[in-house]
Amino acid sequence: MEFKDSLFMKDCSRSNYGYEAMLDYQLSWLLRVAKGHPNQDLLRVARSVLFKLIGKKDSSGATIQRVEIWKQWERIDLTAEIEVVINDKLERHLVVIEDKAYTLIHDDQLTSYKGTINAYYRGKEYTKHFWVITYFEQWEDGYKAIEKQCQAAKEEPDKDKDKDTDWKLLSFYDVIEWKEGFKDTGSDLFDEFWLRKWS
C-alpha cells in the first residue's frame, strides 16, 4: 500500500507533543465506533481493533453490548470496560493501554499501573488485557527497549498473577489489520490519522 502524507499532526512545532494524547482520543473513539456505525468499512476495522485488543480472532456473530472508556484515570492513558456476547455467552473485558510516542516507559509505570488496576478491579469479573502501544516500529531500538521493559514488568512479583495477563507490546502500525487490498474507509478522521504518513 502506498501511503499519502498526512496533515493531521503537521504544523510548525519542533516537537512531537500531542501524539500520545491524539492516540488516546483516536483509540477511544475507534473502540466506541466498534459498537455500531453506519460506515461499514470503518465499523469492520473498528471491530477488528477491539477484538484484537481483547484477544479474540473472529468477531463475526459477536455483539458488542457496552464500551466505556476513561482517559487518564489514575494517570493510565486508557482504561476500557467492554462487554461482548459471543456464542450466546456474555464476556466482560478490561483493556488497559499505555501509549508511547517517542519515549520509553519510566518510573516503573507498568508495575504501578497494573497494581492500581488489580486493586480497583479486585473481585470484579473482567478478563484483563494490558497493552503498550508505541510509535516505534519493531526493528527500531526504542521498540526493543520497550519490549524489554514489558518483559521486566512481567517478571515483577505479583500477588494477583493468576488473575491477569502481562503487558503486551503493539506497534502503532500493527493496531490495524493490514490486508491485501486494504483501502481508505471513507472516514476522514480515521483515514487521515491511521492511513497516512506523519513524517
Overview of the structural elements:
This protein has 199 residues and is an alpha/beta fold. The chain has one domain. It is 33% helix and 26% strand. It contains 6 helices and 7 strands, in the order βααβββαβαβααβ. It has helices at 19-33, 40-53, 109-120, 141-154, 172-175, 188-194; strands spanning 4-5, 63-73, 76-86, 89-100, 127-134, 167-171, 196-197. The strands form 2 sheets. The chain has a 5-stranded mixed beta sheet with strand order 2-3-4-5-6. Strands 1-7 form a two-stranded parallel sheet. Helix 1 packs across helix 2. The radius of gyration is 17 Å and the shape is globular. The two termini are 17 Å apart.
Portion of residues in helices?
A: 25-40%
Distance between the termini: 17 Å
What is the alpha-carbon Rg in Å? 17 Å
Order of helices and strands: EHHEEEHEHEHHE
What profile does the largest beta sheet have? 5 strands, mixed
| Count of individual beta strands | 7
| Order of neighbouring strands in the sheet with most strands | 2-3-4-5-6
Averaging pLDDT over every residue, what do you get?
87
User: Shape from CA axes?
Assistant: globular
Structural class call reads alpha/beta
Strand proportion, as a percent range, falls in 25-35%
Q: Return the domain count.
A: 1
The parts where pLDDT drops under 50 for at least 5 residues are none
Count of DSSP-assigned helices: 6
